[in-house]
Amino acid sequence: MVRIRGMAQTGLRVVAEMQSPHCVVVKAASTEPGRPVVNAAKKSLTLDMPELLGGNDRGVMPLEALMAAYAGSLNVTGNFVAHTSEFDLKSWKFTVWAEFDPSGIWGLNKVSKPIHVVHVEATVVTNESEKRLRELCATTEQRDPMHQLLKKAGVKFIAKWTRVKPK
């Protein structure tokens, strides 16, 4: 559990009472070949492949789910970083995509690093300076668990965070 409380003289203080390591449980079951339904807590996600790749195109591809999880993780981590650093974040949008080598999946090659580059485009609506935006980006990437996981796997990143003044 994480409790956040305002402190009159020191601003925001975070008190963490956590068991370590945290545990996230995800279960997957497939009623049709190649189309698992993934359950986490009370939510579900259907994974599938396009018909061209042997699927039924009734769900997101696993790589799309990974990129969606990364975009969502950036959003959650970034919102927390913005809040705790008093960054004036009005809103933002992320577009995330990956350059990858599918030849390993197809059995054509042994591929040690199938995801080569992950691109991140963030449009940030704020009155903050470019310097503060760079700090938000760097701190978010440093604290984001998905970013660190991909980075440690040798994935390169091309990030473009653009500041937009509110209307």
Task: Describe the protein in words.
This protein is of the alpha+beta class and 167 residues long. The chain has 2 domains: 24-60; 61-167, K homology (KH) domain (GMP Synthetase, Chain A, domain 3), CATH 3.30.300.20. 27% of the residues lie in helices and 37% in strands. The two termini are 37 Å apart. The relative contact order is 0.12.
Write the layout of secondary structure elements.
Layout: E1 2-7, E2 11-16, E3 27-32, E4 35-40, E5 43-46, H1 62-84, E6 89-100, E7 115-126, H2 130-143, H3 145-152, E8 156-164
Parallel strand pairs: 7-8
Antiparallel strand pairs: 1-2, 3-4, 4-5, 6-7
Helix pairs in contact: 1-2
Short description:
With 167 residues, the chain is of the alpha+beta class. The protein is 27% helix and 37% strand.
- Using the coordinates above, name the CATH class of the largest domain: Alpha Beta
The major beta sheet can be summarized as:
3 strands, antiparallel
Gap between N and C termini: 37 Å
How confident is the prediction overall: mean pLDDT? 85
Q: In sequence order, what are the helices and strands, one letter per element?
A: EEEEEHEEHHE
How many domains make up the coordinates?
2
CATH superfamily of the largest domain: K homology (KH) domain
- Give the strand tally: 8
Using the alpha-carbon principal axes, give the shape.
Answer: globular
Low-confidence stretches: 1-18
Strand order of the largest sheet: 3-4-5
Helix percentage range: 25-40%
